[in-house]
Design goal:
40% of the residues lie in helices and 18% in strands. The chain is built from 11 helices and 8 strands. Strands 3-4-2-5-1-6-7-8 form an 8-stranded mixed β-sheet, with helices on both faces. The relative contact order is 0.19. Helix 1 crosses helix 11 and helix 5 packs across helix 6. The N and C termini lie close together (8 Å). The chain is α/β, with parallel strands linked by helices. The mean pLDDT is 92.
Length: 251
């Protein structure tokens, strides 16, 4: 299964979800690959030290003869590997302009590696550009994190329109895995109202698991750890464990 985590709205918990969903699946003994497709590289920096000399997903998408398998690195977590990103990934769009296979580059270069993993999780940038399109074309499923806030649904129409366009032509097998409510503060009336609003729009596609606001989730990447080793008894660890169970159940 290849799952893209996407929402062009920033700050909704895409990278936090990629990091911790990947770790949760690996903890279950499922061989998992994180693909960092965000030029900011936060997913990479959550597990690896900065190394500008290291080959990254950029080289796998640009250089002839290089595939995702050639750039994969081990993380400190058993069964969890990562295809790292660097800031050079921001140049990808200009490099691939005019190329006939520009939307299929990740799918083609990922195929061989993906066959050796139970799950591939792709962290995408907060845009609907070529990188996100590549992720959707390469994926079997889309997971959409939506922040529990007043402007939570802003931009989701554009994302779903893009999803339908990708599904119509380049990737008819793409499915909406689900919508994940993140950064939720259940103590407030507003959060409860927003949750109902999201469920009214997406129905049974909304995950039962809701990711609560949790300072431990924000701190763990700085220590190069997932929430499960950094704060195993926190609500964040429990939330992402439950999410992994739901993901497995849905796919």
């Amino acid at each position: 299964m290849i799952i893209s985590i996407a929402n062009q709205k920033g700050g909704v918990g895409k990278t936090t979800t990629a990091i911790n969903l990947g770790a949760a699946l690996a903890q279950k003994g499922l061989k998992t690959l994180l693909v960092d497709l965000d030029p900011q590289g936060n997913c990479t920096l959550s597990y690896l030290e900065r190394d500008n000399g290291r080959r990254s997903i950029y080289e796998a998408l640009i250089e002839p003869g290089v595939t995702v398998r050639d750039v994969i690195q081990k993380t400190p977590i058993l069964y969890l590997d990562i295809a790292p990103a660097r800031i050079s990934l921001a140049k990808l769009e200009s490099k691939l302009v005019g190329e006939l296979d520009s939307h299929f580059r990740l799918k083609d270069r990922l195929k061989e590696a993906a066959e050796t993993y139970d799950y591939v999780i792709i962290d995408t940038p907060p845009t609907l550009g070529l990188l996100t399109i590549n992720a959707l074309v390469a994926s079997t499923h889309l997971l959409v994190p939506v922040q529990s806030s007043y402007f939570s649904l802003e931009g989701t129409d554009d994302l779903l329109e893009t999803f339908e366009k990708v599904k119509a032509r380049p990737n008819p097998e793409l499915e909406l895995l689900g919508v994940l409510i993140t950064l939720n503060d259940k103590r407030t009336v507003l959060s409860r109202d927003i949750r109902k609003q999201i469920q009214d729009v997406f129905g049974d596609k909304v995950f039962k698991t809701v990711i609560a606001k949790n300072v431990r989730l924000e701190e763990s990447p700085a220590y190069k750890e997932s929430i499960f080793s950094f704060a195993p008894d926190s609500s964040g660890a429990l939330d992402y464990y439950r999410l992994s169970e739901e993901v497995i159940g849905r796919v």
